[in-house]
């Protein structure tokens, strides 16, 4: 592989068709690709298929490589394969028409596990309606990796305290069942005790404002931002907690299918295929791996009617 890259770069330099800067960039890009292949025991271009290219993309993205740089890497790869096919016409070109994102979609900020734990512990003893509600919001956003729109859309009937789950209606009105960690369940219990006193008659929303009506997305964003400033000294958005939960879950479990179901994604990128994972398996993986599922179990409250 190293020899193929060296021969290609030499031919490109002799042609005079590219600038020294482009030549250097191609050399760096192809050098990284060659190193990736070597680390995976792949010796030549003929052994590379689209699965290898997908693995290369994931490896580069994990290192923080942006879409623009990835597109340049694949431009270099396509040029390398064209050169190789001139020498060996039967050489397949898996980089041809390989789908690369056309624009950058930066990932949201995320918290380290110890930061997430500190955020939750900072409000471990709430003693008012607002503090209890905001603590329950933070716990549930992180515990179940909810979108803020999913959180504000929750109704009392969506909570299953005994099973430790929440029924979520996500994008495209797709419904999924997601585990809820023990600290989040306890925070919800504490909050719901005071919610009963303030909720307007007939209001079914889990999270309400001081007027007793369903909270807005903007209100939740403001409260999360406030918690980030006061508890961590930094900006904090609800989606940061969703991304943090998913990242921590994946790092611990290593089960991409479980995380996919957890987040309610139909697919990952342009090549992933959605595969079903039943709730019991998702719950098992969650209990074994999510940071907020490893706390002592709160006492089970007596079963009560919806309020």
UniProtKB/TrEMBL annotation:
<dbReference type="Pfam" id="PF00589">
    <property type="entry name" value="Phage_integrase"/>
</dbReference>
<dbReference type="InterPro" id="IPR013762">
    <property type="entry name" value="Integrase-like_cat_sf"/>
</dbReference>
<dbReference type="InterPro" id="IPR010998">
    <property type="entry name" value="Integrase_recombinase_N"/>
</dbReference>
<dbReference type="InterPro" id="IPR044068">
    <property type="entry name" value="CB"/>
</dbReference>
<feature type="domain" description="Tyr recombinase">
    <location>
        <begin position="106"/>
        <end position="287"/>
    </location>
</feature>
<dbReference type="InterPro" id="IPR011010">
    <property type="entry name" value="DNA_brk_join_enz"/>
</dbReference>
<dbReference type="InterPro" id="IPR050090">
    <property type="entry name" value="Tyrosine_recombinase_XerCD"/>
</dbReference>
<dbReference type="GO" id="GO:0006310">
    <property type="term" value="P:DNA recombination"/>
</dbReference>
<dbReference type="GO" id="GO:0015074">
    <property type="term" value="P:DNA integration"/>
</dbReference>
<keyword id="KW-0233">DNA recombination</keyword>
<dbReference type="GO" id="GO:0003677">
    <property type="term" value="F:DNA binding"/>
</dbReference>
<keyword id="KW-0238">DNA-binding</keyword>
<dbReference type="GO" id="GO:0007059">
    <property type="term" value="P:chromosome segregation"/>
</dbReference>
<dbReference type="Pfam" id="PF02899">
    <property type="entry name" value="Phage_int_SAM_1"/>
</dbReference>
<protein>
    <submittedName>
        <fullName>Tyrosine recombinase XerC</fullName>
    </submittedName>
</protein>
<dbReference type="InterPro" id="IPR004107">
    <property type="entry name" value="Integrase_SAM-like_N"/>
</dbReference>
<keyword id="KW-0159">Chromosome partition</keyword>
<dbReference type="InterPro" id="IPR002104">
    <property type="entry name" value="Integrase_catalytic"/>
</dbReference>
<feature type="domain" description="Core-binding (CB)">
    <location>
        <begin position="1"/>
        <end position="85"/>
    </location>
</feature>
<keyword id="KW-0229">DNA integration</keyword>
């Amino acid at each position: 592989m190293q020899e193929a890259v060296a021969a290609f770069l030499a031919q490109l330099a002799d042609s005079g068709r590219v600038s020294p800067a482009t030549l250097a960039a191609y050399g760096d890009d192809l050098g990284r690709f060659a190193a990736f292949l070597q680390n995976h025991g792949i010796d030549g271009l003929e052994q590379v298929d689209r699965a290898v290219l997908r693995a290369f993309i994931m490896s580069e993205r994990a290192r923080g490589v942006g879409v623009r740089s990835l597109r340049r890497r694949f431009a270099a790869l396509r040029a390398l394969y064209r050169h190789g096919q001139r020498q060996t016409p039967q050489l397949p070109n898996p980089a041809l028409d390989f789908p690369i994102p056309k624009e950058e979609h930066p990932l949201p900020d995320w918290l380290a596990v110890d930061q997430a734990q500190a955020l939750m512990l900072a409000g471990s003893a709430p003693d008012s309606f607002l503090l209890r509600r905001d603590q329950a919001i933070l716990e549930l956003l992180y515990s179940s990796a909810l979108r803020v729109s999913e959180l504000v859309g929750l109704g009392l009937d969506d909570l299953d305290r005994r099973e430790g789950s929440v029924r979520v209606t996500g994008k495209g009105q797709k419904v999924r069942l997601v585990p809820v960690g023990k600290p989040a369940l306890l925070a919800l219990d504490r909050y719901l005790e005071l919610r009963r006193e303030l909720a307007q008659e007939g209001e079914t929303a889990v999270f309400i404002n001081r007027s007793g009506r369903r909270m807005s997305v903007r209100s939740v964003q403001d409260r999360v931002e406030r918690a980030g400033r006061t508890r961590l000294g930094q900006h904090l958005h609800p989606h940061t907690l969703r991304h943090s939960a998913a990242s921590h879950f994946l790092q611990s479990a290593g089960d991409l299918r479980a995380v996919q179901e957890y987040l309610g994604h139909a697919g990952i990128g342009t090549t992933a295929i959605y595969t079903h994972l039943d709730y019991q398996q998702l719950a098992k993986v969650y209990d074994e791996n999510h940071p907020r599922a490893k706390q002592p179990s709160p006492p089970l409250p007596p079963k009560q009617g919806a309020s």
